[in-house]
Design goal:
- This protein is of the alpha+beta class and 152 residues long.
- It is built from five helices and six strands, in the order E-E-E-E-E-H-H-E-H-H-H.
- It has two domains: 33 residues; 102 residues.
- Helices cover 45% and strands 22% of the residues.
- The strands form two sheets. It has a three-stranded antiparallel sheet, with no helix packed on it. Strands 5-4-6 form a three-stranded mixed sheet.
- Helix 2 crosses helix 3.
- The longest helix has 17 residues.
- The chain starts with 10 loop residues before the first strand and ends with a helix.
- The model has no long low-confidence stretch (mean pLDDT 89).
- Belongs to the NrdR family.
């Protein structure tokens, strides 16, 4: 680790502590040349998840977009923010555990619908209507019938 004062490249670790709920390690170091102390933070390097959109363009996975979509579907429904956060956490954990670092918007939508179906059926239908782009009342009714059949 390069000293910020004299640029010497060797230092010793004096103290290590966990920071940010275990997401980082804070280290106090001492330069072996000038003796000055400085702090460094060590984080796990993650490979970003790339989302492949319908038009084949790619962008980095954005948890906020997923949260916003689920929030919209749950608007004026008896679904708490805590439940929404937990759903997004579970979806993100599933995405992170996949071996492939690319995921389609279709796969994300399916995961979201899976979660919504267990929490609130009306929110599920709302999300599905936007996600699956229902073209008419018949496709909407087909989705409702599937939901009713699964419930029985």
């Amino acid at each position: 680790m390069k000293c910020p004062y004299c640029s010497f490249e060797e230092s010793k670790v004096i103290d290590s502590r966990s920071a940010d709920d275990g997401e980082r390690i804070r280290r106090r170091r001492e330069c072996l040349k000038c003796g000055k102390r400085f702090t460094t933070h060590e984080v796990i390097e993650t490979v970003p998840i790339i989302v492949v959109k319908r038009d084949k363009s790619r962008e980095v996975f954005d948890r906020n977009k997923l949260t916003a979509g689920i929030l919209r579907a749950c608007e004026k429904r008896p679904v708490s923010l805590t439940q929404i956060e937990e759903m997004v956490d579970r979806i993100e954990a599933k995405i992170q555990s996949m071996l492939d670092r690319e995921i389609t918007t279709r796969q994300i939508g399916e995961l979201a619908m899976e979660e919504l179906k267990t929490v609130d059926e009306v929110s599920y239908v709302r999300f599905a209507s936007v996600y699956r782009q229902f073209k008419d009342i018949n496709t909407f009714l087909e989705e409702l019938n599937k939901l009713l059949t699964e419930k029985q």
